[in-house]
Amino acid sequence: MENGTQLPKPPSTGDKKPENAATALDAEVTNSDSGIMPIDEGTMREAPDGVGEKTTVDAGLEDTEPDKIDKLPTTPAPATEARPLKPRPKDFEPCVYDVSPSGFRRIAINVDQHVTTIGNDRENTDIHIDEPNISQTQVVIVSIGDQWLIMDCGSNDHLRVNGVATRQFVAEQNARCVLTIGQSLLVFCGNEAEKSPHPETAMLNDLYTSGLVHEDLAVGELTLKNEQEQVVSKGAPIILGNHEICDYFLLGSNVQPFHALIYWDRDGIYLDPLNNKGVLLSNQPVNDSSPVENGTTITIADVKVGARITPNHKDRCAQLYPAESLAFDYFGFTAIGDTPSESFTVSMVGQGVTLGRGNTCDIILADSFSSREHAQVIPSGKSLTLFDTYSSNGVFVNGERVRKSRVHVGDIIEIGHSHFLVHYA
């Protein structure tokens, strides 16, 4: 199972105008300080035809030319050495388990569909959850290269990954993690056919989080042990239950398939019951997230497990989950497939940004099929408004041509021959 990560913030550019440094992609997009992710061209080349129809033209939006805006300098990402991509295994079975007090249901993820949507819209989302307070589309799961990108795109933040609140989570191809969306619990398996080994934490090897401490981490360790099994974690969450994908497998007449989650947060280690079938900490019943201390006895139904925690674990927690690691100040536009243009970022607040091949644009696209001033994006909270500024070849969102449209993370926009996946950065 993998811990959540954040794509890094782009460096400050001052008043520097962007240079047109875009180059053609071969098979992947390089990493950079602007949060650019390596992309498997073979996986993402056909993305615009494979995505759903989550984004449509907003009703009532007029097709008028947007007002002139002040320029916001934004620098294209410098090229660096790409991270090697792991090949997709022959047996590839991503899925989600929707866990409820009465049981669970397994929902297979379509491997040919690069974006999977989760929300309370029964007709237009891939995974429907009955949560009245969330958005019609609250969370998107994107298959990108050899990783998964899980993002909260709803009007309000309702996503927790492995107990930790975040808007965006980068998971390895075979990751397992618990998604809490409102009051609903989902167990995500990046590849159920390949149970991943129990890692220390993905954040230690994360390429995307520039603010994290990768060396000289405080010593911290959690050990769960009973007569049948012992599991050690230095940052990775642990799912307890009797389902075969659980990290800590428990045998007992009343143990549920997914019974409890133990996770590391900023200020300590916590246990979160995943149902109402009974969890005790040192003989005290718990119904929501509760701290786990050294020497605590955890009782899952009729099974007891001892918890041993090293003294400096809270220092390690603070290093693994600094407060700023969950904040996002930019939208990332990652070039996918054989896109000729470079990836770029746009601030989540402030003025709009123009895109095109002309030298006066804020973002200069190395795409001969784009107009001199092709489009404009204006940020607004967790979304952006995208305008077609009277281009010759049009602007597309998830394969649909638009004149003016609201864009969310997880959407794919097409300008000329360039395709960009929108995410937080």
Task: Describe this structure as you would to a colleague.
The chain is mainly beta and 425 residues long. 4% of the residues lie in helices and 35% in strands. The longest helix has 8 residues. It is elongated, with a radius of gyration of 22 Å.
| Oligomer class | single chain
Spatial sequence of strands, sheet with the most strands: 2-1-11-10-7-8
Range of helix content: under 10%
Could you say which overall geometry the principal axes of the C-alpha atoms support?
elongated
Which stretches of 5+ consecutive residues score pLDDT under 50? 1-82, 198-213
Brief overview, please?
The chain has a six-stranded antiparallel β-sheet, with no helix packed on it. Strands 13-12-22-21-18-19 form a six-stranded antiparallel β-sheet, with no helix packed on it. The chain has a six-stranded antiparallel β-sheet with strand order 24-23-33-32-29-30, with no helix packed on it. With 425 residues, it is mainly β. It has helices at residues 41-44, 47-50, 313-320; strands at 95-100, 103-108, 115-119, 127-128, 139-144, 147-152, 159-161, 164-165, 168-172, 176-181, 184-189, 222-225, 230-233, 238-241, 248-249, 260-265, 268-273, 279-281, 284-285, 290-291, 297-300, 303-309, 330-335, 344-347, 353-356, 363-364, 375-380, 383-388, 395-397, 400-402, 404-408, 412-415, 418-424.
